Amino acid sequence: MGVIEAAEAVRRRFSTVPGLFKVPAPGVEMYVLRDFLADKECSALIALIDEGREPSRLLAHTGDPEFRTSESCNLDPTHPVVRAVEKKIAQVMSLDPACGETIQGQRYAVGQQFKPHHDFFFTTEAYWPEQERNGGQRTWTAMMFLNAVEDGGQTQFPEAKVRITPRKGNLLVWNNLDEHGAPNMTSLHQGMPVIAGVKYVITKWYRERPWTPSLAAATTLY
Question: Which CATH number do you get for residue 190?
Answer without folding.
Answer: 2.60.120.620
